[in-house]
Amino acid sequence: MRHGETIDNARQLMQGQVQGQLNTIGIEQAQQVRDEWADHHVDAFVSSDLKRSYDTACIVAEPHGLQVVTTPLLRERDWGDFTGRFIPDLKGLPWPDNVEKLDHLLDRARQFLHFIYKEYPGQTVLAVGHGIINKAVQAVYHNCDMKDVTRMTNAEVRLLELTHDFDAQASLRPNDQPTAQNDKKFCIT
């Protein structure tokens, strides 16, 4: 699932890897997903370690009484010098050199799928991330280009069923290790 709307989403500011804060609409969106998923069986909740996704996941997890596991693998793309800028002003500008490279983003997505497959076998996991990393996860899952994945709206849930390991050779870098441990299904926002 994608996190609920934030103050910066509403202002059209490029958030990247800043923490972000849900606005009133974002809280209501998360509460709506919480209510829709209250009677669904969920074994685990995993989110990006950025506040906007974590807060969304905590709201959705309330009726299940489960702790939210965080991982930097689900962080949004690092937009480098574009971070904090008004998105409409960026159209046509050359990308700064410090924007996270696409191959690194897709590698994180592959590592995330590997992590879910290995850590939560046969379990239903609801994962909360961000627009671009979620797009990368879906592109890896569907073996397609990111441009072929439809943009997710705030608090949108999509279901993916992991029936195989996406990269048995994937290795988590030390800084990408999850902060808690707790054929499977998972949801991404």
Walk me through this protein's architecture.
The chain has 189 residues and is α/β, with parallel strands linked by helices. 31% of the residues lie in helices and 13% in strands. The chain has 5 helices and 5 strands, in the order ααβαβαβαββ. The chain has helices at residues 7-10, 24-37, 51-61, 102-119, 131-142; strands spanning 44-48, 68-71, 124-128, 158-162, 184-188. A 5-stranded mixed beta sheet has the order 2-1-3-5-4, with helices on both faces. Helix 3 (51-61) links the parallel strand 1 (44-48) and strand 2. Helix 2 runs parallel beside helix 3 (51-61) and helix 4 (102-119) crosses helix 5 (131-142). The longest helix has 18 residues, at 102-119. Mean pLDDT is 90; it is low at 168-185.
